[in-house]
Write a structure and sequence with these properties.
The protein contains four helices and eleven strands. It is α+β, with helices and mostly antiparallel strands. Strands 1, 2, 3, 4, 5, 6, 7, 8, 9, 10 and 11 form an eleven-stranded antiparallel sheet that branches. It starts with a strand and ends in a 5-residue tail after the last helix.
């Protein structure tokens, strides 16, 4: 589902059992773990942090393998628990130029998320195990298959997670920036 993100996140008490289960299912890491530095910006034309439930972010990511610019808007907009997000992401050839461009346009830095990400793939689901500095270990499951709609994709993702049959820890209904900014939503 292009431009729509459907994911689930959990606080991961121990990545070992998840890695073992993924290997049992035939998944393999999609390369070595990568460090990603995600700089989040607030917009000058509307305050992303103003609503009680934050529903959008603008992120500039730098990593060993390149950089990208990403905008997300979660739905439903004014509720705490989101079901999916519109997501627009594109590679960036010069991250420093984009950072300077954002500052020149009065976008203000909000928070930086420093994480190490390990990615695993199966036909319909991408699994990432993240270690986030100052926040801990997490797992995100993102639907990557074909579906009729958001409801169908969500049901498929939830079924996959349940069928794993392992303890994933507490469900997390907020992003890493929320955590580092000490926001519930």
């Amino acid at each position: 589902m292009q431009y729509i993100e459907i994911e689930r996140k959990y606080a991961l008490p121990d990545p070992g059992p998840l890695r073992a289960k993924l290997a049992e299912l035939g998944a393999k890491p999609a390369g070595p773990s990568r460090r990603q530095i995600d700089a989040y910006y607030n917009a000058p034309h509307r305050d992303f942090l103003a609503p009680e439930a934050v529903s959008e972010w603008l992120r500039l990511r730098t990593a060993d393998d390149g950089a990208s610019l990403n905008y997300k808007r979660w739905h439903p907009v004014d509720v705490r628990v989101k079901t999916h997000a519109d997501e627009y992401e594109t590679p960036v050839g010069d991250a420093e130029a984009v950072r300077r461009l954002l500052i020149a346009l009065d976008f203000t830095p909000m928070v930086t998320v420093d994480k190490t990400r390990e990615t695993w793939r199966l036909p319909e689901v991408e699994i990432v195990i993240d270690h986030v500095a100052a926040a801990g270990d997490f797992v995100e499951f993102e639907f990557k298959g074909d579906a009729e709609d958001v409801t169908d994709a969500t049901a498929t993702l939830d079924r996959f997670i349940t069928d794993l049959g392992i303890d994933l820890g507490d469900t997390i209904n907020r992003g890493y920036p929320h955590m580092l900014l000490d926001r519930d939503h």
